[in-house]
Each structure stands twice: as structure tokens, then as C-alpha cells.
Amino acid sequence: MFFLRFYKKTVPTITVCAIINSSLIFVKGSGKIFMRERRKYPRFNIHQMIELSIGKENYVSAEAVNLSESGILCRTEQGVEPYSRMFLLIGVPTKEGEKKIRCEGVVIRCDAIKGGYYDVGVEFTSVDDRETLKNFLYNK
User: What does pTM read for this prediction?
Assistant: First the structure.
């Protein structure tokens, strides 16, 4: 098995459809390669300060960058080990006022970015009130 990772590349003018690393690849008549989004749920940009609990003992302040039904991207001042268990509360506005949604997840990536910050991607393993989260995301 081999892995190819590229986003745009000029190739001879043909129409091809292939699957590489779980991504559907389309080569259109222009010869450009376009990758289809692999995410199951759309992401929504948010800018909200949150506190992450790593293993229920270590707390990290973070800014939520984007959110979906299946996970969250946070910006932190310290790196977090991939595959760490993470617990967080997300405050979302409802008709009755702000509601806290408890989520548990696993860190799937942690990338150093400019300014000494880290982008931490968390995939949710459980969400205590998925309906409230969906209403927040899709009815903004």
C-alpha cells in the first residue's frame, strides 16, 4: 500500500476518478486534480474561549476555532499529545439561555503554528446533548 498526498497538479487532459487515502479524486478536463472533502459533517467557525480538561486532571485554556457535530478545533498555548482523552464544556445559546454541553473526545492532531500556539483537533467520542449542539450549528 502506498500513500499519495497532493492537492493540485497538472496532468494530461483526461477525466479520472480514483480513491487515494480515503479521498475521492476527480481529474477534470483542465488537467487539475481536485480533492473532495472527507469530513462527514460541515465545520462552523466560532471564536469562544473554552477550558479543556486532559485526563480530568490537567486544564488548558483554549480558543475554539471551529466546531462540527463530530469534533472541534482549538488553539492552545501548549501542545497536547495525540490520542489524549479530552473533556470539555461548550456553552451554546438557546431560547432558555446559555446551555453547557458536555463532550468527551480524543486528540487526533496537534500542530505547532505561528506565535507559539498549537492547533488541536479533537474528535468527539460522546456528546451529552447532541440535539442542542445540532440546533446551535445549523440554526445560527
Answer: 0.69
Give the integer Cα–Cα distance in Å for 54 and 60.
8
Report the CATH number of the 44-138 domain: 2.40.10.220
Cβ count within 10 A of residue 65: 17
- Each residue's pLDDT, cut to its tens digit, for the chain (140 residues) gives 333 334 444 444 334 444 443 344 444 444 454 555 566 788 889 888 888 888 767 777 889 999 999 999 999 998 889 999 999 888 888 888 999 999 999 999 999 999 999 999 999 999 999 999 999 888 86
Which residue spans of the chain are classified as CATH 2.40.10.220?
A: 44-138
At residue 137, φ and ψ (nearest 5 deg) are -70, -45
